[in-house]
Write a structure and sequence with these properties.
Elements (H helix, E strand, L loop, with lengths): L8 E6 L3 H12 L4 E5 L10 E4 L2 E4 L5 E2 L4 H9 L13 E6 L2 E4 L16 H16 L19 H5 L4 H15 L9 H11 L5 E2 L7 H7 L3 E4 L3 E7 L2 E6 L2 E10 L3 H7 L5 H9 L2 E11 L6 E2 L2 E7 L8 E6 H4 L9 E7 L4 H4 L4 H12 L6 H4 E14 L3 H11 L6 E3 L2 H4 L4 H19 L5 H9 L1
Parallel strand pairs: 1-2, 1-12, 2-9, 6-15, 12-19
Antiparallel strand pairs: 3-4, 5-8, 6-7, 10-11, 11-12, 13-17, 13-18, 14-15, 15-16, 16-17
Helix pairs in contact: 1-7, 1-16, 9-14
């Protein structure tokens, strides 16, 4: 009688972004054999960075808050990342209104005269909105976005209860820049919960040597194969089978740590309680142009360089933001040089995806001249970064289906990603990775005792 064939691995993880690498790290610490498969040549997912002639360019994510990112900071501490390697961001956040930048977005200055471009009536309504969130603070839980006082109302619907400026010069610019959202499509609850948790921009930080620092550190702790795309994942009687271009891999469990539309394509035979939520988790798309400059140009407010200038849809139809990365941290550019990121307005991103890169660059740079005069002449190199799956849209339907998805039984195929939490931030990815690992371990168990894990951590 033939013996059953042993699987190649305990766990196969698809995707080397923060979610997949966190899951792999936790499972490896528990003593399981884990391998991560990544289709790109570098790890990091939407937190990838690259280096070019002394510049450090963040392709995707830009900052990490001091507050509301508990899982991220715990992971950084475990990996030995010092807090001085995650410095505070330099410069303020402003919004463009009627021909000039208005600083104070997201901070106390938004509540005083002229702050953040809001008039007296809008500022009063902002106080009312913040007061309602503060009174119900415990119900704005980022881990339970489906269970807040605003229900499944969209950002536009919630904003419609207040002065129009609150939508036009605060909420729309924020979600357009940070999430790539259309305010009429995305639910307000995840945004309000996230903003309540992370606090004002004065608490934002960045990784010293690029936003990929966390994922690079995590990748050093696990086995990762880059440049290897997984084409299909099938649940079997005793685990999962992964089909790659050069063969198959079997595992006792698999974690799909990719955007929901990609996870759905990898696993077309997902059970109904998974498939419904996967189908509902649509993503925004995003496009950025990095401009490497021969001088440190930046948008300004009252003569001071800004880190981030939001350009509302009511004022601008090409850009949603201009980011001065060398203001964020001087190490992003060589001394005396500059680095700007131009973020395309969400509404034009699908059209730009069909355009030649040179045309896209020219269009965004021309639009940005309004906010940074001389940008075109100062630009030495440009790079386009397109994300067909940028961040989860968190639609009302996804919000409605999430609770059922979270209550599903553990299975050989699990999921990780910011979309699992409906939390459009890297903290959501890290938390989902830890959650996926705990679900896998509840089914497979560990191969290492608690005392052994403590000893490893001490080392």
């Amino acid at each position: 009688m033939s013996r059953p064939v042993s699987p190649d691995l305990d766990v196969a993880v698809v995707g080397a972004g923060p979610a997949g690498l966190t899951a792999a790290h936790e499972l490896s610490r528990a003593g399981l054999s884990v391998r991560v498969y990544e289709s790109h040549r570098e790890v990091g997912g939407r937190m990838r960075s690259f280096r070019h002639e002394g510049w450090t360019v963040d392709r995707g994510a830009e900052q990490v808050p001091s507050r509301g990112y508990r899982a991220t900071w715990e992971l950084l501490d475990r990996l030995g990342v010092r807090h001085d390697q995650v410095p505070r961001i330099g410069g303020e956040v402003a919004v463009w209104r009627e021909g000039r930048a208005r600083p104070g977005v997201g901070g106390p200055a938004a509540l005083v005269d002229g702050g953040a471009g809001l008039g007296p009536a809008a500022r009063l309504d902002l106080v009312r909105l913040l007061g309602r969130i503060a009174r119900d603070r415990r119900h704005y839980d980022g881990d339970r976005p489906h269970d807040t006082p605003v229900g499944a109302a969209t950002v536009r619907a919630v904003a419609g209860r207040y002065h129009p400026d609150l939508h036009d010069y605060l909420l729309q610019p924020l979600v357009g820049c940070c999430f790539g959202w259309d305010t009429a499509r995305s639910a307000a609850a995840p945004m309000l919960s996230l903003l309540a948790e992370v606090g004002p921009p004065s608490g934002w930080r960045t990784y010293l040597d690029g936003m990929d620092l966390l994922t690079r550190r995590l990748a050093d702790t696990v086995e990762v194969e880059t440049g290897r795309a997984v084409r299909e994942v099938v649940q079997t009687e005793d685990g999962a089978r992964l089909r790659l271009d050069d063969g198959e891999v079997t595992a006792r469990a698999a974690v799909l740590a990719v955007p929901a539309p990609l996870a759905a394509a990898l696993r077309p035979e997902a059970p109904p309680d998974e498939a419904e939520f996967l189908g509902a988790c649509t993503f925004s798309s995003a496009l950025k142009v990095s401009c490497l400059l021969d001088r440190p140009l930046a948008p300004t407010a009252d003569g001071r360089p800004l880190y981030l200038l939001l350009t509302p849809a009511v004022e601008e139809d090409v850009l949603t933001a201009v980011i001065a990365d060398h203001v964020k941290h001087p190490g992003r550019a060589p001394h005396g040089r500059g680095l700007l990121t131009l973020m395309a307005a969400p509404g034009i991103v699908p059209g730009l995806a069909e355009c030649p890169e040179e045309e896209t660059k020219a269009r965004l740079i021309a639009a940005a001249e309004r906010y940074v005069p001389g940008l075109g002449r100062a630009t030495r190199h440009t790079f386009v970064h397109a994300f067909p799956h940028a961040l989860p849209e968190a639609t009302p339907r996804a919000l409605h289906l999430r609770e059922r998805f979270m209550r599903r039984p553990t299975r050989p195929v699990e999921y990780a990603g910011d979309w699992v939490m409906l939390r459009p931030a890297s903290e959501g990815a890290v938390r989902s990775g830890s959650l996926a690992a705990s679900r896998v371990l509840s089914r497979l168990g560990t191969r290492r005792t608690h005392s052994e894990r403590q000893l490893e951590t001490a080392r």
